[in-house]
Fold Riboflavin biosynthesis pyrimidine reductase.
Amino acid sequence: MATDTNSPPPNSRPRVICHMVTGLDARVDVSSWCATEGVERSDQTDLYYELMRGFGARGYIVGRVTMAPYATGMAEDPGGAAPARRLHLGVNRDLPLAVVLDPSGKLHWESGVLDGEHLVMVLGPDVPDGHLRELASRSISYLVSPTQRIDPDWLLAELAEHFGATLMLVEGGGVINGLFLEAGLIDEFSLLMIPALDGREGARNLVETSRSMTELKLSLKSVEALEHQAVHLRYAVNRDTSVRVG
Ligand SMILES: NC(=O)c1ccc[n+]([C@@H]2O[C@H](COP(=O)([O-])OP(=O)(O)OC[C@H]3O[C@@H](n4cnc5c(N)ncnc54)[C@H](OP(=O)(O)O)[C@@H]3O)[C@@H](O)[C@H]2O)c1
């Protein structure tokens, strides 16, 4: 699959594509979906990762809740000197990036590489020194945000400066997608839609935000029927500046 060649946004921040797998009701918690007749869910998931690699992005950005099941390390402060309080760059950072918003430092990892991707933890300003030492000792990169609520604009600028990012994928969950969409930072949605339904009231949606979306204008870029009964939908996101944000 070709690398995405769309031109960068005007202020030269990294371009952002929100890439997700959804059922027909745009819910995103795969564990609660009905099956697709005659198709293994793992084959559909593999398709999602294949599309993801095809974008040629510098990496993906996800929320703490999404990554919690994969964070299987032990909490342990190795002790020693005071850690860097703003930025630490681990080894292996030429790999694709797995950037995780974890403002309170709740996640612990075994190493800095997860499924071939280099972990970059994005932390709040009150995370204790011991947690930063733990991350650095496992060669995990980290960025410490100046604010507890991480500003996605700030994060993209940091990823461009320290990791050379020009294209990032935002990959959920709904809260993180909502954070970037509200800030006007999602340029495109890439949805792998599969025949599945969740249907539970309150189940996580593609985008979770309290803001109205009336200022957005979406347009279809492409639609492609794929194997395993999946459809790949791409939508450009534009803003109607004449409409006030609700
Ligand atoms: N279908 C798909 O393609 C797909 C992809 C990814 C995830 N998912 C699903 O999505 C669900 C999880 O999504 P979710 O919306 O509940 O959670 P999420 O977006 O993964 O994570 C939300 C958490 O991120 C942190 N966070 C969010 N905004 C922040 C900000 N501005 N500053 C600092 N930290 C911030 C907070 O962590 P703290 O709580 O620690 O403060 C918040 O609770 C799971 O069911 C997962 O399987 C589906």
Summary: Residues 180 and 186 are 6 Å apart (CA to CA).
